[in-house]
Amino acid sequence: MLFANKKKAAGAAQLINRPLDDKPETALHRMLRSGSVMFGLITMAFILFLTIFSQKVTKWSYLDVISVLRKYEKPSWEHIFGLDEIGRDLFSRTTFAGRLTLSMSAASMLIAIVFGCSIGLVSGYFPGVVSSAVMRLMDVLSTIPSVLLTIMFAAALGPGVSCVTIAVGITMIPTLSRFVHTLTVEIRESEYVVAARALGLKSGQIIMKHILRNIAAPILVYVTSMAADCILICSMMGYMGLAAKVPTPEWGLMIHAGYGAIRHSWHACVFPSMMVLLMVLSLNFLGDGLRDVLKRGQEDR
Description:
Blueprint: H1 2-17, H2 27-32, H3 35-52, H4 90-125, H5 129-143, H6 146-157, H7 161-187, H8 191-198, H9 203-239, H10 251-259, H11 267-300
């Protein structure tokens, strides 16, 4: 009896003296402690705030011509990004341009996620001749550079914001479908999937409840990094004049307009480029941080 009491006391002492670090961490705690995740989230939130409230944080409209005689005026306290080629405030235009570029990227990612995940899940869960043929087609399309493939689809669909958005979304489908297909093949014969099949669940229920839920985390990480590629490609299409047209502000179009005067008016090209760079960096840091967080969580299990 005395030995049992001593054992209980020792166990209680261990619980009392256990350091706080021994408490199991949640995914949210790990994310908050990740420098990459926080940098990505803060930078992305800041850029999104500027783009959404672009006409609230500055007194100048993105269409207002301050003065044609002041074209390519250098940055100042009045115009922190300077003026563009016809004397418009570059800060208001750069922040407002993010709405179109980011909207195009978000819409193209939505297309890629819906069709890419569907193709990957179905072809991975139902092996056969048709599934194999579809994935071989995805393999062939994946070998073509993304920018070249986007130009090919844009040429087929025609120029314009909507057509370029669809073209970018189609371009992202092959790589995402191959990634989802690989994950699905890895777990389609796992114990819980076999058990669900033995219980008589329909294939759709198994795919949605048992497969998709277990591969959602790596898909999220992959999609986050892919979003950075979408922003780059959308900006490239704008730079080549395939998306927005003057006077609609768009990051790629603004970079093209400022590039011709970069020798004497660097700010017209640098500031839109900097917004693209920061957005791409934030998404890459966020994706890397999420991957490390999820990996650490699996190791703790």
